[in-house]
Predict the 3D structure of the following.
Amino acid sequence: MTPPPGLPPTPSQTLGPFFGHALPYEGGGDIAPAGHPEAITVHGHVRDGNGDPVPDALLEFWQPGTGFGRVATGPDGRWSLRTLPPAATRPYLSVCVLARGLTHHLFTRVYVGEAGDDALLSAVPRERRPTLLARPDGERAYRFDIHLQGEKETVFLDFDDAADAADAADADDIGDISGIGDSSG
């Protein structure tokens, strides 16, 4: 939203940590129907710039054609989601990260299985691509750790403005990407 002429924008405020009281919901990590034979588990940890666990992050997942999920991290920064494998045409889960200390939520993707010729992944420098790839971790399971800063920092996506992000959520897709950003600015 653009402020009226002559008025500065309202500054961002630091988020949380209030997620555990209102936003997570029972079954929030169960996008796939219980007992579905094709269900997979995607799990990992959220870590800060020092590699320490973030115990009160909140992750929101969107998956085209499948649904929406919301999971909180535990005391060890761990999270888990049960979903269906992404379609070959969109081989990823869209993710929004909310955590204390962030002035804005962060967007990223989790590529599960074969990424094919995905345009966004191809635009990411080769050495940074592994930060977007879930790796196999057992039968029908994948591990994806989110690093908010540091050497292993996950690639985060930069939108033109908040309206693009809202449009992306409504479209079950990550939306128009204006560039690849990082969490530091």
In short: DSSP finds three helices and eleven strands in the chain. Confidence is low (pLDDT under 50) at residues 164-185.
